[in-house]
Write a structure and sequence with these properties.
The chain has eight helices and eight strands; from the N terminus they run E-H-E-E-H-E-E-H-E-H-H-E-H-E-H-H. By secondary structure, it is α/β, with parallel strands linked by helices. Helix 6 (144-157) links the parallel strand 7 (130-135) and strand 8. The longest helix has 14 residues, at 144-157. The structure holds adenosine-5'-triphosphate (ATP). The site of adenosine-5'-triphosphate has 18 residues, from helix 1, strand 6, helix 4 and helix 7.
Length: 208
C-alpha cells in the first residue's frame, strides 16, 4: 500500500482552561473536513496575549487529555507548557516542521483569534509554514465587513480555509464563571472533565 503524501497534520493550540465541548467538536470537524491524518492539541504555556492568569499547565494538559481522548487521531502535545518564558505559536510550528519535514501543516483557530492574527509574533512566517483554518465563532470583536477585510489580507499572504460548522456559542470563560457561581457545567464539558474540575477544586473563585 502506498502512503498518502504529504501527511496532513493539524495543530490546535489553546489555553484549554478548561477544554470544552466546542473544542472537541471543532477538532472532530477539522479532522473530518480537512481529511487530517492527525491533530496535535497543544495547550499554551505562558500565553503572551492572555492578561488573566490561567490554571496550572499540568491541570490544563490533564484536562485536554481527557477531553480529546475519544477524538480519533488527536494527541495532546505538552511542549509549550514545558517552555520557560513566553510561548509563541511560530516557534512551535518551526519545531514541528523541523521534526517532521514534508508534512502539510494546518493551524486551527477560531474567528476571535483570527481577527487578531496579525498581532501574533511571526504571523507572516506562520502563514508560510501552515494553512490557516479559521473556524466560525459567534464571539467577534469586528463587524462582518471588517472581519472579511481582515481575512482577505491574510489570504493574500498564505493559504486560508474557512471552516463553517454549526456555531457553538460556548467559551471557557462561561464555564469558569458557572463553576464559580456554583452552577452546573455538564452540558458544556465532557463528564470526565467535569469530574476533574470538581476533584481538583478548579475555578471556585470568580477570578481563577
Ligand atoms: P476563553 O473563554 O478563556 O477565552 P476559549 O473558550 O476561547 O477560552 P481557548 O482555549 O482560548 O478557549 O480556545 C482555543 C481555540 O479554540 C481558539 O482558537 C479559539 O478561538 C477556539 N475556540 C474556542 N471555543 C470556540 C467556539 N465555541 N467556536 C469556535 N472556536 C472556538
Amino acid at each position: 500500500m502506498t502512503r498518502r503524501q504529504p501527511l496532513r497534520i493539524g495543530v490546535f493550540g489553546g489555553a484549554f482552561d478548561p477544554p470544552h465541548r466546542a473544542h472537541e467538536a471543532l477538532a472532530r470537524a477539522a479532522i473530518h473536513r480537512l481529511a487530517l491524518d492527525a491533530l496535535r492539541v497543544i495547550p499554551t504555556g505562558q500565553a503572551w496575549h492572555r492578561p488573566a492568569r490561567t490554571s496550572a499547565a499540568a491541570h490544563r494538559v490533564a484536562m485536554a487529555q481527557l477531553a480529546f481522548a475519544s477524538v480519533p487521531g488527536a494527541q495532546v502535545d505538552d511542549r509549550e507548557t514545558r517552555r520557560t518564558g513566553a510561548s509563541y505559536t511560530v516557534d512551535t510550528l518551526r519545531e514541528l516542521q523541523a521534526e517532521e519535514p514534508g508534512v502539510h501543516w494546518f493551524l486551527l483557530i477560531g474567528e476571535d483569534q483570527a481577527v487578531a492574527f496579525r498581532h501574533w509574533r511571526g504571523w507572516a512566517e506562520i502563514l508560510q509554514i501552515a494553512t490557516l483554518v479559521i473556524a466560525e465563532r459567534d464571539q467577534n470583536t469586528l463587524g462582518t465587513a471588517e472581519k472579511e477585510a481582515e481575512f482577505a489580507v491574510l489570504a493574500r499572504q498564505g493559504e486560508l480555509v474557512r471552516l463553517q460548522w454549526p456555531l457553538q456559542p460556548l467559551s471557557a470563560t462561561t464555564i469558569r464563571r458557572r463553576v464559580a457561581a456554583g452552577e452546573g457545567i455538564d452540558d458544556l464539558v465532557l463528564p470526565s472533565v467535569a469530574r476533574y474540575i470538581e476533584t481538583n477544586h478548579l475555578y471556585h473563585h470568580a477570578d481563577d
